[in-house]
Structure formats: structure tokens, C-alpha cells
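Dear support,

I submitted the protein below through the web form. The confirmation email said the job was done, but the results page showed an empty box. After a refresh the structure appeared. I'm attaching both so you can tell me whether what I see now is the final result or a partial one.
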Amino acid sequence: MVKDDIVVGEDLQEKCCVYRNPNDAVEARVKDLLCRMTLEEKVGQMTQIERRVATADPGIIRSRFIGSMLSATGSGPAADASFCDWANMVNEFQKSALETRLAIPLLYGIDAIHGNGSVSGATIFPHNVGLGATRDPDLVREIGAATALEVKASGIHCTYAPCVATQRHKDISVCKDPRWGRCYESYSEDTEIVRNMTSIVTGLQGQPPKGHPKGYPFIAGSRNTIACAKHFVGDGGTENGQNEGNTVLHEKELERIHMAPYLDCIEKGVCMVMASYSSWNGCKMHSNRKLLTEVLKDKLGFKVIVPYRCELFVDHLLDLVNSGEVSVARIDDAVERILRVKFVARLFEHPYSEPNLLDSVTSKRHRELAREAVQKSLVLLKNGKDHSKPLLPLKGKPKTILVAGSHAHNLGYQCGGWTRKWLGFNDKENGRFTTGTTILEAISEGVGEETEVIHEENPSTETLQREDISLAIVAVGEFPYAESFGDDSKLEIPKDGKATDIINSVADRFPTLVIMISGRPLFLEPELLEKIDALVAAWLPGTEGGGIADVVFGDHEFQGRLPVTWFRSVEQLPMNAENECCDSLFRLGFGLTKAEGINVEEMCLSRLRHEINVDGLSCEYSEHVKDHAMVGNQGSSCNPSLVLV
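What the results page shows now:
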């Protein structure tokens, strides 16, 4: 059952008070409601609980005046709950909130990191690192709009996304540290690329009108959701890529590298900015008054919520206020920001889910959009042992294709973390969670019935001895992870799936395309890279594996460019600007086209000046040169030819 009526608290005597009037100004409504609230009600609004807390204690929402709830990834009404199931669950919690004295609605949030990944049947888009490879902010904005619709259809008002971290270490402008377990949540190591991708905020929340006040929240309508830019600030620049670690950086560099994307989000009316668990120069961000209050709230004029993602101990906070250690003014400041977002989002007028949105979820358009994102995100790193004889795109109808590797037929591995569960899922253990197409299924569909497709995760000796196999496609990569569970000092292709052994045995016998499924660059053994014929970085593509087949078979061209630098060895990390050009395996912006031996690299626009040695000559260029291409031989040569167009 989905509700669309409003339940007013039984103890509310003034039916026509200002805060209940949708025609009154938001600030007037905030002021009116705030002055009516008791300290207990204010602290309740500041308290966020996880779904399981309310399930275990159904009366807690009413007794503690709870202001917001969240579902951790996969924490829903049932393992395979539908959009309607989720909407009904949230509505029941909302009903409890509306039965309190002032009938202040709940704000319910979820981590829809790359689509509403907790809901069965949801469209799962490529993770952010793949979207960064597309360099397409308009596409990212459309993905934001589709995600917002699938979030709102499930009765949820807020997604804790996007992550606008920049993968930088210290004050060096072009290096990164992929050892960080949240690397795939960032769009790029380059600040300008990340800034361009903040278009997702507009997709999620809608386009603010001209003249909209800077720092003021904005929600366009019922098909939009509250966005949350995270994690403020510097979480992508910690030492050794340690999640929740310490970022050692001068304040000016922190602003230039890590803070810039937040300015764009604030300009777009983002409703929340989440504080980071990490530290800056040894000071935990959650206790950093300078950055959270003096910079974010005062200097940048951010007038809405800074969530801390923890369950406050209500009694303890009440004691602190009553003892004078925490001022009532500080409480009022926090509650005012929370109420402002709830009024802007029209939660008082529309607290329950809207049934008409259910007809729009998991639509063909959303699947096509996700497939387009996969097509544009693929980065071709190698194409042929002989540059004059590229393997891709695959032409004609091969008689027999061998498809191998742990990631060839596992939708969970394609999606990565934050899908169904916090740490992701495995089809073999959990079964199919949502609708989608694996790489194997996409290849089989792409070649048709005329071609025999042999699928063996680890090919047998008998199969390897066959003489009729035209080529092999091996899909390998990382197994799903999230946050600190993804911190990795070695960055090797996981040995659990015997990936390197499979690649070696297959490449010894057949022309071999390797499709790498990962949230970051991984160490590639030189001998392995030399042995294979083609290599594609597919990142974590999500549910629409058909996008991979579209490009491999030539229906669409390779367009993706590396959003991060691909290192040669982990000993190089963190890399620095002085040796990146010569020492990296593949530079930031590298990506081959289908044309033989040609690569198109983009220059990093965020650096003020660059100097490249071209055949012994010094060539300088500025970030103001926006339209250009680099054309050179396949590989990562330090002496490419430069063409400005």
C-alpha cells in the first residue's frame, strides 16, 4: 500500500500555523517551526538511525522524535525487495514520524552510489571512475536524473552521493594513489575532470533557476532527490591511500585540489555536504571547526546540512546542552539547516512515496542510458602485437570464440561494491540480484547463432588444444569491495581466480583480448602485457554488459580516456609530476582509438603550465587551451607529437 495523504500530529492545535502553510516563505516556516520545538524535539531532528534500529524498536521514532533514517546498502524489507516493497517500508516509518506532536516528516536516505543498488531490479550504472573515463558531463547529468527517479520511486528522499574526492597525494598536481579502497567512487585524479562531473548534482536535484542564491538548497520537483556531496574534504589524498587516513597538505593546495569540486556542487544548490572520516594534517575532519564552520558554512555560505553519518546518543547530547557545554544556539543552527532542506524538498506537503513513479523505474530508457555509459567508458589500452594489425574491433563472424575468466559471467563482479550489499555480491553465491547482461551473454548475443561460444572460466587442457578456436576473450579483475576493505598495498590482479594463469595459458594458444574489470589500475606484468593481443579497461560497468560487446564488435568506437594514471609498479606510488610522463605505464588521458597504432590523449586542464619535451624541443601550454588532441605512437612514450586544434 502506498499512501499519498498527510497525517497531522494529534497534539498539534494550530492547524493553520506558518510552518504548515506551503505558500509561506521557507525561511518563515523554518523560524516558526524552530520556535515551537522543545530541546528533545530538536535533538531528535539531529539524530539519524539505521533501519534496523527502528525495526528492533518500532516506537523509537515517536519517543525520540527521530528526524532522519538511512538504510545501509541492502538493509531493506527483504533480500529481494522490489521498489514497491521499499516504498511501503519507508511509508510505515514516515507514518510514525507524522504521529508526533509537530508532525515533522522523516528524511530517509540511502547510498545510491551508481544507481539505487539496494533495490531488486534497479539499473546499475558504471561506478564513478568509469564515468570519469567518458569525459561526458551531459551523460552524467542524465544518469543523475535516472538515479533520482529510481530512488524516489522507492520512497527514499536522499542519496548520499556524489563522491567528489580527487585522487591526489600531497601537493603534487598530477599524481594519485589507487591503493585507496574508495578509488572507484572518485571520477578522476584530475580536479577539472571531477569538477565537470558535478553535473550529476543537477541530474539528481534539478537545475536551479537563474539567480538562485549561492549555498541555498534546491530541489526541482517530485522526480528529484536530495544529493549529498562527499567527503569534505581531502579524503582522496590520504597518505598511502589509506581510507579514513591523514591528508598532509598546505591549506592553499587543499583548496585548489580537493575543495574546488565542492564549490561547483554548492553553486548547483546541493542540499548536503558530508564531512569526511579522514584527517587533515592530523586533525579529524569531524572536529575541524576551521574547515566545517569557518570555511564551509561561513566563507562559502553553505546554508544546509552537514551530516556526520553517525547515530547520536540523544541522552548524552541533551546532558551536554543542559550542562552548558553545547549551546542552544549551536543546536538551533543544526536544526535550522535540517528543516530548511525538508521544506525545500516539500516533505511536509508530500511525505509519502508517489505511486505514479513506480511506472518509470527500470525503464528501457534507463537501461539504454547505462549501456551508453559503458560504451563511452571503455578505455582501449592495447590493440594488436603489431600496430599495423589491430585485433579490435572484431570483424566478421568468427567460427568459434572462447570466453574465459572469473568475471566473464558474473553480474555481481561487474557491478562491484555498493550493490545489493555494502561489499557487493557474487552471482554464484547469491544468485542474480537484478536484471542485466553479463559479458558472456553480451558476446553470445553479439555474434549470433553462427558462432560457437565456448565458456569455461578456467579452460581445460582439452579446450586449449582445440584448433578451431578463432580467438579468446578473458574477463578478469577485482572482486567486489568497499571502503577500507578495498585498501590494497599490492594492487595485483587477484590470485583467487587464477587470472594470470588463465591469461597465460589462453594467450599461448589463441589471439587474446583481456577485459579488465576493476575500480582502479592494477599491476600488469610486462610479460603478460606483451603476450596478449588487446587490453580493455572496463572499470566496474554495472548491469549493462551489452555496452562492452557493442564496442568490441565495432558497433560503437572506443572513446574512453584514462581518468587516472596507470602505474608500472606499486613502488612508484604515490607518483609525482617529475617522473609521471616517462615512468607511468599509461598516462592520464590515454586511450587508443580503433585506428591502428594511434592513441588520443588529453592534456590535464587543471595544471597552470606544463612542459613536454618534443624531439628535444620545449613545448609549453596553458590550461586555457581547451580544445586539443595528442597524436602519437601506441604506448606511453615520453616524446609524443603535439597537435593543437
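Response: this is the final, complete result; the empty box was a page-load delay. The chain is about 30% helix and 15% strand.
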